[in-house]
Amino acid sequence: MENLYCCLITILSCSLLLISKNLLFNHVKNKKLPPSPLALPIIGHLYLIKNSLFQDLTSLSAKYGPIFFLQFGWRSFVVVSSPAAIEECFTKNDITLANRPRTMAGDRLTYNYTGPGVAPYGDLWRVLRGLFVVESLSFNSLQRTSVIREEECQMILRSIYRVSKNESQVRVDLSHWISVFTLNVMMRMLVGRCSIREEDAGEELGMQIIEEFREMFGSSISMNLCDFFPVLRWLGYKGLEKEMISLQKKRDNFGQGFIDEFRCSNTLLDKEKKALIANLLSRKEKESVFLSDDAIKSFAFIMFTAGRETSTLTIEWAMLLLLNNRTALQKLRTEIDINIGHGRLLRESDIPKLPYLHCVVNETMRLYPAAPLLQPHYASEDCKVGMYDIPKGTIVLANAWAVHRDPKLWEEPEKFMPERFEVKKLMDKEEFNSKFLPFGMGRRACPGANLAIRSVSLAIGTIIQCFDWDKVEQDGDLDINFSNRITLQKAKHLEALCVPRQESILLLSQL
């Protein structure tokens, strides 16, 4: 019976792929496609992906050029890996490539694509993105919520100080404390209160809450085998779709609970907290065509997934790189000492006075961009990139990892050198923007760049201002391996040795 089942899957897969291949061939037979490796029957080029997707695509671009074509099952991809090709995609062809591909995860985890990050290009997307920017990402919104980020930084500093003040050195799980900071910031921006109380942050309860959030919001809407071979989805491959349905039910109950709570209380009238969900609900009458409960929950879930996780990863990588590069760490500490001192904590308003801190953040995002492959774009019409035709229905992937580590574009690209981002060393802005891509390009670029830069810079700056840090293992560099084939999540928690700086003890004791 099992052999018969496997045989049926094979026959259905072959039939579907042959039909798809014929349709694709009829559509592209007179077009000049980008170069492509040898494709195998049925699976196409999937056999070439053996390690991290972005690293394998970078290796292929070295062989086939900055624009090349791949077939994964019935899906067609074009990978672009040079500033010129990426700029052409998101300037000349920006509208044509402004859509996202539909995926099984997108179908199940996005409320029918009602979030600003996944909505189809058009009126819905414009309204949702506009609301998202005005309510949480505009300059005024960021100024208003800066106190949240500063208070949560203070909570982390107090917690670390409590466990380190009586020790010569204490071992600190930086990954955990960074996660507490980013989770509480997002929760307070969304609903006006933190998720992890200070007294629980370092205890088992705090760790449990972090893990629960990772399980609930750690899943991305990236593609899986069911998107390349639809027959697998029909057959319930590995129960993936059932898991997504169950996960979305859990997410929905979580988000709806906050909406119901705001509706049943007078919190909506609280102008001090300015919680995002409350503000969106108060706008709902004006924007009723687009602003449903599902859309509001989509806003929240984007903050938890894209917003929280990317900032967490960037802070973690920055601290790891600084611990591995004592000269850069000392230079940053000196800049903070000179410009801020020890009489008060660094504030968000101080960040423009700390150019080397900005260089450290930029260099971290160059080496370890949170999204090494930018969000996929879907060609709604035929278009041209370089000398090649891109057929309608093709998925375009921009490989930021390849661009950020291209030796033709960056001196010693594998080396951590924050100084490369000093203003006097940068070329003209337009050229720079096309080779530094942590937040993407064009109209579908990440709107949360300013929030991310503020959060990351504040967290790094304050923990460097107040504590001396060192590696747990003194010989060799800290582990830079990552565990995810799509993102740059670290394989192991980042731990470091910590002691309060003598100059900061009085300040820390008064927090």
UniProtKB/TrEMBL annotation:
Pfam families: p450 (PF00067). Keywords: Heme, Iron, Metal-binding, Monooxygenase, Oxidoreductase. Gene3D superfamilies: Cytochrome P450. InterPro entries: Cyt_P450 (IPR001128), Cyt_P450_CS (IPR017972), Cyt_P450_E_grp-I (IPR002401), Cyt_P450_sf (IPR036396), Plant_Cytochrome_P450_Monoox (IPR050651). Heme binds at C446. Its cofactor is heme. GO terms for molecular function: heme binding; iron ion binding; monooxygenase activity; oxidoreductase activity, acting on paired donors, with incorporation or reduction of molecular oxygen. The keyword Iron applies. It comes from the Eukaryota. Belongs to the cytochrome P450 family. This is DH200=94 genomic scaffold, scaffold_1180. It comes from Coffea canephora.
